[in-house]
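Hi V.,

You were right to ask for the full record rather than a summary. Here it is.
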Amino acid sequence: MKRSWATLSQLAGGMYTAQDFERAAYRLVTEQVLYSADRKSRNAYHLVETYLADFAAALEPLGIRLERNAHFRYVTALPVHGEGTAVSLDETLLILVLRQRYDEAMRQGQVEDHGDVQVELPDLQEAYQSLTGRELPETGALRSQLRALKRWSVCRTMDCEPGDPQPFRILVRPAIVEIVGAQWLQRLDQHNQQDLQDQDTAAAADNDAADAEEPASEESMEADDVSA
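Predicted structure:
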């Protein structure tokens, strides 16, 4: 670390305490993204933005690098090593489809002021089926998966008004561009390889079972009759 939190607190002229710096660093590690547009993270974002080099130096020994998006005003804490938390195939597929919807909205200029993109459930369903070859999970399972994805601060749900045919919309956050990178594609490839291995294993087991149940041929039956 270039300068201690106590030193930075003194340089801030009493605006921030050493604990404020500690809490902001902890939030970066646990929440991964701080958005200036979010009321709950606004103060922490401004603190990190002001002392970005110091926070970067503090988190570097933990294997975390910081990236700041000056246009949409957010800071992302990215692990240098891509192992991360175990992610299910369903979560991987969903977050990759959300990334695709975000990229498409960027190309069409349908991005809100702070970089967010609203995704309607019918559009998500169509894209999910097209990209994965699977049906979109039912509403309850989809909500559960989206709650799991919130730990990376890449999306959140917004309840719809009464009378709207869909129960909620999805707000995809701009940091999905940094977070859903090559390591996610590697995870998907690993999942796909495992699926193929499982399918091959199941097919081989079915073939073995079919061979075991196959009736004796006429030649073998005739041989049995002769020997008898």
